[in-house]
């Protein structure tokens, strides 16, 4: 028994996944002889099927996350032979066309569920803010917006003001098979956070100073529900991976990483 972080009720808590396990399952064996996808976390970049779990949500709220977001989004991420969401968005009307990128109007487009896409993204950002995932994911600092997101996820409030969720798809099914946990990318004049599931970049801009330019790209609040397709997704993803390599983290083996984590836990208990 415990207090569910979403509904705030005292209930039996499930073993919740930080990143849905289906995201890992779809990527096994996509690119290399190692059958596991690459996961970028706070202090390591690991090729693994190991999933961060903890007792965070009750069964009803776990089911809510699955039903309202995960079940729709994850089958549409990039996989070995197809990238279903990219195929659908490419057929949506083009609003802007610039070198390396297009912006598509997805309002009313069959096969695109903006509500579920938004719910999935906001649930991941919220999970990264509301709980310490055994020290392996940087806890996002959302301030008063954390509670506003929780209320929206629960269906008790409208989408928070002073937020813009921008969704951009990789333009091709190549070099994108990495899962990146939410990380801060900007702190002034507003806060920016980003995470990746295969082929999809989610950027959340937070704060009263979010620029009009960033607001007009919000997939949820704008009437035309814009979604971008860009070569820049791979470039930005590569920059995150390169930062880990330059900082000395590199791609490490799962057994070495787990052993290091076990030593850390033993040290804390002394």
List keywords for this structure.
270 residues, alpha+beta, ten-stranded mixed β-sheet, two-stranded antiparallel sheet, 8 helices
**N→C terminal distance:** 27 Å
Calculate Rg over CA atoms.
18 Å
> Helical content, roughly?
25-40%
Largest sheet: 10 strands, mixed
The largest sheet has its strands arranged as 7-8-13-9-12-11-10-4-5-14
> H/E series, N to C?
EEEHEEEHHEEHHEEEEHEHEH
Report strand %: 25-35%
Mean pLDDT: 82
Specify the number of helices.
Answer: 8
If you had to describe this structure to a student in words, what would you say it looks like?
- With 270 residues, this protein is an alpha+beta fold.
- It has one domain (14-269).
- The chain has eight helices and 14 strands.
- It has a ten-stranded mixed sheet with strand order 7-8-13-9-12-11-10-4-5-14, sandwiched between helices. A two-stranded antiparallel ribbon has the order 1-2.
- A hairpin with a 4-residue loop joins β10 (178-186) and β11 (191-197).
- α2 crosses α4 and α4 packs across α5.
- The protein is globular, with a radius of gyration of 18 Å.
- The protein starts with a strand and ends with a helix.
């Amino acid at each position: 028994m415990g207090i569910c972080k979403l509904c705030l009720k005292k209930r039996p808590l499930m073993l919740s996944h930080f990143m849905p396990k289906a995201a890992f399952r779809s990527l096994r064996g996509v690119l290399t002889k190692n059958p596991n996808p690459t996961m970028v976390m706070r202090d390591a970049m690991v090729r693994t099927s190991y999933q961060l779990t903890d007792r965070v949500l009750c069964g009803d709220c776990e089911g809510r996350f699955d039903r309202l977001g995960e079940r729709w989004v994850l089958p549409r991420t990039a996989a070995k032979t197809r990238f279903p969401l990219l195929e659908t968005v490419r057929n949506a009307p083009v609003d802007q066309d610039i070198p390396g990128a297009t912006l598509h109007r997805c309002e009313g487009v069959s096969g695109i569920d903006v509500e579920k896409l938004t719910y999935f993204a906001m649930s991941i950002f919220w999970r990264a803010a509301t709980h310490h995932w055994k020290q392996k994911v940087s806890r996002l600092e959302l301030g008063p917006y954390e509670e506003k997101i929780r209320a929206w996820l629960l269906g008790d409030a409208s989408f928070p003001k002073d937020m813009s969720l921008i969704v951009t798809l990789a333009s091709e099914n190549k070099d994108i098979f990495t899962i990146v946990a939410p990380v801060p990318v900007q702190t002034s004049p507003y806060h920016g956070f980003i995470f990746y599931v295969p082929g999809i970049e989610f950027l959340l801009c937070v704060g009263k100073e979010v620029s009009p330019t960033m607001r007009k790209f919000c997939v949820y609040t704008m009437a035309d529900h814009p979604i971008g397709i860009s070569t820049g997704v791979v470039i930005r993803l590569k920059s995150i991976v390169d930062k880990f390599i330059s900082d000395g983290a590199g791609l490490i083996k799962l057994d070495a990483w787990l052993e290091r984590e076990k030593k850390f836990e033993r040290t804390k208990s002394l």
